[in-house]
C-alpha cells in the first residue's frame, strides 16, 4: 500500500491551493479518521457477503460498514478518490514545511526556530549586558512555550547563531565549546552558556514592545509570539540563510554590514537605481571565513535573477622554508565558506598518497586560536604555483557557492534578486515605522490629554480641593470635577491620584513643560505619518547608526577574473618542450635541456631506445599549451594539445600515437605543426612527395573532431610529407632530393579549401622526389636585395639570411639567400647542393633570423639519425659555401646510418652547457 501511494504521489499533479485538514474523532472508541472539512455527505450501512463454492452468496452478521447515502447523517467511512486525498495532503504538508520550518522570512531574515530562540532569550532578559545563562535553560524555554519539536533541532540552531564561522554577524554570544571549522560538535547544552549579542538587540529586538509587529498565539494558545521581528537592517542578506524544503530550497550568501547599509541607502535615495549602481557599494558577498571570490559573473546572475554560482578560493601564501635548498611551503590562511578544514587536509593527503598531487612532502595543521594555518611543504624543485593550481582543481580549496535566493514574501515562497529583496525590506520597514509612530502618537496624545487636565487642576487648586472635600466618595469627587472643570474621566482620575508634594509651583512648571514637549512630539509624529520621505530618512538614519556601531571590514576579497573554474590546461605551465616523432608513430615529450650543446663533427647523444626497424621522423620545439596538428601521409589532420603527450626521459621509447589519435590501419603521421593561435592571416603550406603544393587558411583547422578532417586531396601513389606555417608576405624554399631549389612567394599562391589537391610546385626529373621545404619570414626579404651571390676570396663570411643544407650522409653547408632568385612555381629550379654518389638532400632550413652582436647566427640545429642518435650543434660553426660546393661534415654516421630528421631551435634556452660530454637528464613537470 505504501508503494502504491508513493507511485500516486509521483504521477499525480499537485493542486495549487493548500487545503486545510482536521482530525475528526467519532464515537467508535480507539478509532481516528482523517477527512477534509468540506465533505459532509450522508452515509448508509452495507453488509459484507460471502460467496460459497456453489456460487451462492450468504449474508454475514459481522463486517458491516457505513457508506455515505442520502437520509443518513452518521458514518465512519468516507468514500473519496485516493489521488485527490494524497495530493491535497501532500500539498498541505509541503506548505507547512515551507512556511513554518525551512524557508526564512524576507522581512527579518529568520526562520521560525531562530525567531523563537531570540524572542525567548529576550523574554528571559538575556541581554548583552546581563550574565550568561545555560543553553539548556533557553532550549527548555523555547520548547515549552514556542517550538514543540526536538531539543537537538533547537540547540543546533542556537549554536549556529553563535558561530562566527557560520554567520557573518553572529546574533548570540556563546560561552564554552560551540564547535569548530573542523566540524567538531559543540558541547552538550548543559555545559554551554549564552546571551544575546548587542547587534541582535539593536537590529532585531528594538521596538518590539511598541506594536511594530503582529503577535500570534503559540502552539497551545497559552502565550503570544511575534510573527516577525522588527528588523532595522536586511538580516536575510547580512547573515544569509540555507534550507531545504519540499520541492524547493534556499541558499543565500552573507554580506558585509557596512556595504549592505550603503546599498540600502542608495535605494532609499534613488528607487530607480540600477543593479550596477548597487554593486558599486555592495560588490558581492562577504563570507565569514574570508576567501577570494573569483570573478563577478556569478554574482551578477545571482543579484539579477536570484540564482547564480559564486566561485570561492582559499587564501594562501608562499613561504620559503630553506633559502639554501630553496624549499618552499604553501600556507593556507583561509578556506571557502562551509568547507570542513579537517576534511580538506585529509583529502589533500589522500591525493598525495594516490599520486594525483605531486610535489608535496608534508602536510601539517598548525591552526590555533590566533587563526588558521595549514602548512603544505613542497619537495625540492617543485613549483608552488603548479601545486597550488592542482590544489584548486582537485580539492575544496576552490569551491562554488550556489546562490538560490528564495524567501517568504507575503506568505508565499519567492525567488528574488538583490534589488527586489532590498525593496521588500524597505516596504516592511516602512510599515514598522508607521506602526511605531502610531503607537507613540497614541501614547503621546493620551499623556498630553492627562497633562492638560492636571494643569487645569493645578490652576484651580483651591476650587479642586474644595470640591474634593465636599465629596462623599471618590466617585462623587470624580463626577464633581468632571462637571465643574469640563474634564474627562482619565483627567479627573489623574487629578485625584496626584500627590500633595506635586502641588508646588515647581511641579506645575514641570507639567507645563511636559505638555509642551508632548505637543511637539505629537506634531513630529503626525508629520512623519504624513510623509513617506521622512519615513525613509528615519530608516536610513537607524540603519546608519547600526553600521557606525557594528560594521567591520570586509573579509572576502574579490578578483576581477571572468571565471574561477579551472580547466586542465590551467594547471600546466606553458613551458618550451621538445617533441620527437618516429617513423612508426611513437611520440614523446622532453624538456629542452635534455640534450646539451655539442660541437660539429661529434657522434652525438642518443635520443632514446627505438623499436626494431624504427627511425626518427621529426624533431621540433613547441610550448605545452600549443595545439599540435598531426598531418598523416593520407592527407588527414588530427589535433591535440602538446601537454597531452606524456613527458618521458631521453631513454624512453615514447607513446604510440594510435593511443592518442584515431588513426586508420597503416596510416602514418608525417608532419606535426604546433599552433598557439589560429590567426586568420596565417596559412598552412602543404607539400607532397610528388611535388604538389597547396595553401590553406589556418582558421580552417581551429576545430578538428577526434576522428580528424581532410587537409588535402591526394592521388594514388602520392603522400603528404611537409606542412609549414606561413603568411602572404613570406617566401618558401623548396628542395628536391637531387639538390634542386625553388625560391617562391607565398603571395602568388591562391588560398584553397581543405578538400582540394593543389598545384605543381616543381618539375621533378625522373626518379627525383621532394626532400624538404622551409619558410622564409617576411623580415628577411629585404636582405635579399643587398646581398651578393659569391663568397669573397679572402674567406670573409657573408652576412644575412641563408639556406642551411643538410644531406643524408651528415654533410651540410650554408648558402646565402642572395644566391637564389625568385621564380614562379612549376619550374626545374636552381642547383643548391652538389652531392657525391649515393647521397641526397635530407633537409633545408632558413637561418640567420636571430643573430648575435657580431652578426652571426645564434641558432642551433638538432640532427637525428635513423638509429635515434641526436647531435645538437651551433649553426655559426657550419661553413658558408657556394651553391656548387659539397659542404662539411656535421655528424659522423659510420655506425649510425643516415640523417633521418633535422630541427632548428633557438639558443636562448636555460640549462644549456658548452660541453660535449655532460649529459642532462629529463626533469618531470
From TrEMBL:
Gene Ontology molecular-function annotations: ATP binding; DNA binding; DNA topoisomerase type II (double strand cut, ATP-hydrolyzing) activity
Location of the protein in the cell: Mitochondrion; Plastid, Chloroplast
Record keywords: ATP-binding, DNA-binding, Isomerase, Nucleotide-binding, Topoisomerase
Reaction(s) the record says it catalyses: ATP-dependent breakage, passage and rejoining of double-stranded DNA
GO cellular component, one term: chloroplast
Top EC category: isomerase
Main location: mitochondrion
Pfam annotation, one family: DNA_topoisoIV
This enzyme's EC code(s): 5.6.2.2
Database matches in SUPFAM superfamilies: GyrA/ParC C-terminal domain-like, Type II DNA topoisomerase
Catalytic residue positions: 191
Chain ranges of the Topo IIA-type catalytic domain: 103-571
Transmembrane segments: none
Biological process, per Gene Ontology: DNA topological change
Highest taxon of source: Eukaryota
PROSITE patterns: TOPO_IIA (PS52040)
Record-linked InterPro entries: GyrA (IPR005743), GyrA/parC_rep (IPR006691), Gyrase/topoIV_suA_C (IPR035516), Topo_IIA-like_dom_sf (IPR013760), Topo_IIA_A/C_ab (IPR013758), Topo_IIA_A_a_sf (IPR013757), Topo_IIA_dom_A (IPR002205), Type_II_DNA_Topoisomerases (IPR050220)
Family under the similarity heading: Belongs to the type II topoisomerase GyrA/ParC subunit family.
Name used for this protein in its record: DNA gyrase subunit A, chloroplastic/mitochondrial
Taxonomic classification: Eukaryota, Viridiplantae, Streptophyta, Embryophyta, Tracheophyta
